[in-house]
Amino acid sequence: MQEVKASMAGTVLNVMVAEGDSITSGQELVMLESMKMEIPIEGVEEGTVAEVNVAIGDFVNEGDVLVKIK
Amino acid sequence: MKKILIANRGEIVERIIRTCSRLNIETVAVYSSADKDLPYVRQATKAYEIGDPPAAKSYLNQEVILKIAQEENVDAIHPGYGFLSENASFVRKVEEHGIAFIGPSADVVESMGDKITARKTMIEAGVPVVPGSSEIEDVTAAISYANEIGYPVMLKAAAGGGGIGMQRCENDEQLQKAFASSQNRAKAYFGNGAMFVEKFIDQARHIEVQIVGDKQGNLVHLYERDCSIQRRNQKVLEETPSPFISSETRARIGEAAKAAAEHVSYTNAGTVEFVMDQNENFYFLEMNTRLQVEHPITEETIGVDLVEWQLLVAEGRSLPLKQEDIMPTGHSIEFRLYAEDPSTFMPSPGKIETLHFPEMKNVRIDSGYESGSTVSPFYDPMIAKIIVNGSTRDEAIKIGQAFFERFSLTGIKQNSPLFAKLLAEEKFQQGNYSTAYLSENLTVKK
């Protein structure tokens, strides 16, 4: 199980995947907005989305798990 | 006016407090727990902690801010910029509480906040707008419209702003890809999924005009600001006068901004933003119904205090100057000092160990931080604004160069090296730049 974490505190601007989606390595999964910058959060390995923990508009802290990949 | 609440944070609160102190007006500040050690909290007559760091829990919490305003019995609320400054429902609530809102009426804020409505209003006012659509229902309609006006186009959210909620598209495929995700995001993020398409203007300049109107119906423009030095569609440096435009264009754009403001019976301070092509054709982009970050360069060249004007208008008094009395002199440049990497522009929050602004003649510093302050990841990365003034543009550039040679900030990354580099560039010195300048000339590519 791969945990994809927030690299910075910020607000979730977009969630580009849903549970069950297959993803490739390096694919953008979530877009955060932090300090007025859009920060794409990418998966490291390919796999299937097991869990999406955030929704658009949520505030997340650095290190929060956004998506789990299996 | 005896007492006002300032519903904002950092440098703009310090800026507003300076004018209030001079006019013997008491100030009430509010702050999130992340900002409790910032200088503005100490400078206000009184300050209240209003919540957790995320803006939604503090600076956007209307109920808490209104409650403090009532308990403190303030005469008015100054919203600064960002946060609640362009929120029409907040403006209405402030007025319903019998408190003056230091800005235009709720109706004007509302109509200019929706970019599709704003475009329609400006067409009615006879002000040129960027060739573009009204609301576009779906991706098929977007593509057919884009083909009609020709690529590249900008896909924009009606409720977007601050560089968020717009995307440049080069072809059908990119527009197809961008449409659904941009619309979903606009719906969720701004609460309004209305989208429209505008022609992308190549090698554009971003020129805006400061306007102020009073409740007696007097309205003046205070000339232009050139804000073309940008990264991520966000401003980094602004100057006035624009080194690019002719005196005929300067006069025409001022009149266009006035016509735009008069058409909506604008009161208080506002800014009409235009995009200008290489042939000096200009088109309305949007209207910012508040004090602008870069207002100091206008104050410096015209010799006025715009916050004082805002207070006068909010009190129902008339503007102190007529159009013919407004005569800019000299040249002013503002640098936005950001907590970010100077070449990748990635934010760099953290603790400022030391912050030293050299004391120099003809330099104005509007800062929100000091040595030992922490730039938190929760808000805009701006640390301070450095405003340099010269009798000519060359002189202002030289003062800027001398300033950045002596300036120092340690502890976090910051973008002053970018300014030192920019001021030494021949193209910048010639005033030959567009909004693409930083990404084409000075960005370190990934």
TrEMBL record, chain A:
CDD domains: biotinyl_domain. Its EC number is 6.4.1.2. InterPro entries: Biotin_Carboxyl_Carrier/Decarb, Biotin_lipoyl, Single_hybrid_motif. Coiled coil: none annotated. GO terms for molecular function: acetyl-CoA carboxylase activity. This is Acetyl-CoA carboxylase. It comes from the Bacteria. The keyword Transmembrane helix does not apply. It holds the Pfam family Biotin_lipoyl. It comes from Guptibacillus hwajinpoensis. Keywords: Ligase.
UniProtKB/TrEMBL annotation, chain B:
Residues 119-315 form the ATP-grasp domain. SMART domains: Biotin_carb_C. SUPFAM superfamilies: Glutathione synthetase ATP-binding domain-like, PreATP-grasp domain, Rudiment single hybrid motif. It comes from the Bacteria. InterPro entries: ATP-grasp (IPR011761), BC-like_N (IPR005481), Biotin_carboxylase_complex (IPR050856), Biotin_carboxylation_dom (IPR011764), Biotin_COase_C (IPR005482), CPAse_ATP-bd (IPR005479), PreATP-grasp_dom_sf (IPR016185), Rudment_hybrid_motif (IPR011054). Keywords: ATP-binding, Biotin, Ligase, Nucleotide-binding. GO terms for molecular function: ATP binding; ligase activity; metal ion binding. The keyword Ligase applies. It holds the Pfam family Biotin_carb_N. Transmembrane segments: none annotated. Residues 1-443 form the Biotin carboxylation domain. This is Biotin carboxylase. It comes from Guptibacillus hwajinpoensis. The lineage of its organism: Bacteria, Bacillati, Bacillota, Bacilli, Bacillales.
